[in-house]
Amino acid sequence: MSGDAFAEALVKLVPAFAKAWTDRPKKKAARAVAELMFWPDGMLEQLEKLAQGKGTDEDVAKLRKKLAKSRSKVAGTLQGLAGARDALLRMPDGVFVVAQINALLAQGSRLRHVDGKRGLRDRIGELLQEYEEAMSIKNKKEKKLRLERVCTSALLLCNSIEAFNAAAARFRRYVFA
């Protein structure tokens, strides 16, 4: 390789290397966001059964267990993303990136169209409580009505999770495009 060819290759490689190096915090955040997504073989499996009216006490127990088991990992991921915001703000597109992360972390305001991870987890806890209350009702007619509300709540929650997962996927596409 001649000196000119080497210099040309270096001129092409240095900007790409510099971009890859400076994009590291953004890519790390995008990988963390993927960890927050809800998966079909995770809690979403039991939520969908409840939404279809096919949920059992066993499904509710699995959902409760999965929610509890994932608590510390999710909290760590959320804390890491929250901590990364300062470094991300220094990037050229940092304000946009941080706004996306904030929306994905948010406590789930019912005024927004996408609940954040914390809000979705809170709603799962509320759904579990709603199910327990419905199951404790002795009157069959009232119990049936309350279980139908549980199904409706689970369906709305599944829709919110789908919106959350779509927002997370859009963020990842933006970062890795």
From TrEMBL:
Species whose genome carries this gene: Bradyrhizobium nanningense
Entry protein name: Uncharacterized protein
Q: Which domain of life is it from?
A: Bacteria
